[in-house]
Amino acid sequence: MSKEKVLILGVGNILLTDEGFGVRAVEYLEAQYRWPENVTLMDGGTQGLMLMSILMDCDFLVVLDVVLGREAPGSIYLLEGEKLRQSLSFRDSMHQTDLVDTLVTCELAGHRPRALVFGMQPYDYKTMQVGLTSEAEARLPEFCAKVVAELVHHDICAEKI
């Protein structure tokens, strides 16, 4: 019996401070953990619809991103269903589409993966500067530990290196 294909996708614009948090989180997870063979980690940047073929090739999509919610900066969110629209995923793509629209397009094309978004309320996502704010940088280990802990509930177990 084959395991489902899992894609952990870090998204965001690394040129806009904390907007790049998802990309930095996937880099951290790749460097700090050993993942099962059926799990792929990827920097999705701001590619939006250009990621469609990759999304359609997975069964379970885990997006790491910044989320504009109502909580204080640094708050961590787990989003599913219609709450996925709170994620900034893919809004800065050349097609100006969001994650939910991209997933609906995948469904129309034949395969929509299950999806979760792990996000953090950004401290600053408008300043053009490469690198996270010091506050967001400090939240990376805790954020990533929460991602790893939640994925265990989905039978995805990573090993700390």
TrEMBL record:
<dbReference type="GO" id="GO:0008047">
    <property type="term" value="F:enzyme activator activity"/>
</dbReference>
<keyword id="KW-0645">Protease</keyword>
<protein>
    <submittedName>
        <fullName>Hydrogenase maturation protease</fullName>
    </submittedName>
</protein>
<keyword id="KW-0064">Aspartyl protease</keyword>
<feature type="binding site">
    <location>
        <position position="95"/>
    </location>
    <ligand>
        <name>Ni(2+)</name>
    </ligand>
</feature>
<keyword id="KW-0479">Metal-binding</keyword>
<dbReference type="Pfam" id="PF01750">
    <property type="entry name" value="HycI"/>
</dbReference>
<keyword id="KW-0378">Hydrolase</keyword>
<dbReference type="GO" id="GO:0016485">
    <property type="term" value="P:protein processing"/>
</dbReference>
<comment type="similarity">
    <text>Belongs to the peptidase A31 family.</text>
</comment>
<dbReference type="InterPro" id="IPR000671">
    <property type="entry name" value="Peptidase_A31"/>
</dbReference>
<feature type="binding site">
    <location>
        <position position="19"/>
    </location>
    <ligand>
        <name>Ni(2+)</name>
    </ligand>
</feature>
<keyword id="KW-0533">Nickel</keyword>
<dbReference type="InterPro" id="IPR023430">
    <property type="entry name" value="Pept_HybD-like_dom_sf"/>
</dbReference>
<feature type="binding site">
    <location>
        <position position="65"/>
    </location>
    <ligand>
        <name>Ni(2+)</name>
    </ligand>
</feature>
<dbReference type="GO" id="GO:0046872">
    <property type="term" value="F:metal ion binding"/>
</dbReference>
<dbReference type="InterPro" id="IPR004419">
    <property type="entry name" value="Pept_A31_hyd_express"/>
</dbReference>
<dbReference type="GO" id="GO:0004190">
    <property type="term" value="F:aspartic-type endopeptidase activity"/>
</dbReference>
